Each structure stands twice: as C-alpha cells, then as structure tokens.
Fold this sequence. Notes:
- With 216 residues, the protein is of the alpha+beta class.
- An 8-stranded mixed beta sheet has the order 1-8-7-4-5-6-2-3, with helices on both faces.
- Strand 5 (123-128), helix 5 (136-145) and strand 6 (152-156) form a beta-alpha-beta unit.
- The chain is built from 7 helices and 8 strands.
Amino acid sequence: MKTNRKWMIGALALTGxxxxxxxxxxATAATMADGMTHDTAMQMHHHHDMTTRTVRSTVExxxxxxxxxxxxxxxxxxxxELNDGRPVILTFIYTSCTTICPMVSQTFEELQARLGxxxxxxxxxxxxxxxxxxxxxxxxxxxxxxxxxPEWQHYTGTVEASIAAQRAFNVYRGDKMNxxxxxxxxAAPGKPWLRLDGLATPAELLSxxxxxxxxx
Length: 216
C-alpha cells in the first residue's frame, strides 16, 4: 500500500504542477538571478510550486506564548512543547492539502525510519495552518496515514494561535493555498534554528538533523 501511496502522491504532484509548476520554477530562477531574496521569491508563487531546490539558512526565532491543541486533544503551550530538551524538527501542514503537505509528511515518515536509535530522542512537529478544519481528531487520522510514531505530533488550535506560530517562523502567507515547503531544525532550547526551504528528500532532512545536533 505504501508503494501505491507514493505513486499517487507523485501523480498528484505532477498533475498539480503541470505547466504552471514549470513556469513557477523558471520564474523562481529568474527572480533569484535578479537578486531577489529566496523568501520574497517563494511568496510570489502558488502552492503548487514543485521546485526541488532547497536553501539552508540559520535564523533566530522567538516563540510566541500561544496555546495549541495537540492531536491527542490536550491543550498545550507551544514554547513548552518545543522546549522540552529534545532536538526539534518542525513543519507546517494542513490535512486537506493534496500536493506539498502529503509529500512533506511522507518525507517525515521516511525520516522516522532513518533516524534509527535517535528516533526516540527527537521531537517531530507538524502545525496546522488550517485550524478551522483541522480538529485534533482529523489530525490523528492524518497522522495515522503516515505511520506517525509517538515522537511525531500534530497540532491545531485557534486561527489566531496558528497565525502567530506561522508569523514567528516567517511562513505566514495569508492564504493556505500559498503555503510552501519548509522544515525547521533546532538542537536544543536557546539554540538558533536551521531553516530548510524547498522539497527536501529524507536524506537531506537526516543530514540537516545531524549537522544541527553536531553543532550543539
């Protein structure tokens, strides 16, 4: 079944991207060649931008003092969840997404297996950017699709809390359809975040994780 799911996700990506995806890739290259920053270029493109280019940057982020609802239904503090001492690998998704989000989540699924003995030491975090639709129950069902283990948790909450979290990580684009692929890594509380923009492979995520932990 996993093979079929991977094929379906790939087909969705190709169907969703089409000529629009190719045009967006060309536009990204052109704008970046003109000196436009990567974040600005990413904001210009629709959700279906399927470029495989990844860009790393190290950034300091201040976590907002908001509460979220974890996929087990418990109301939690975002800073407390991210500052429990474990390395964090974080992304933003929404469950009705049919392109980028399932691809990122599938990559997280494969990353879990590649982490080996480190798997139980890492906190994988997926925060919904569509909290009005993504209830805790819906996130639990979504997590099961990708065999999420206990180290990988999904979060929802109020619209305001979700937007605050998105703004804190500079991923808020005003519309979920403008969502782009981005993953954040942090070795420990108080450390800077490694930001990885673009559709990364499981090998790239694992490499980024090892780099962050080694620099701690």
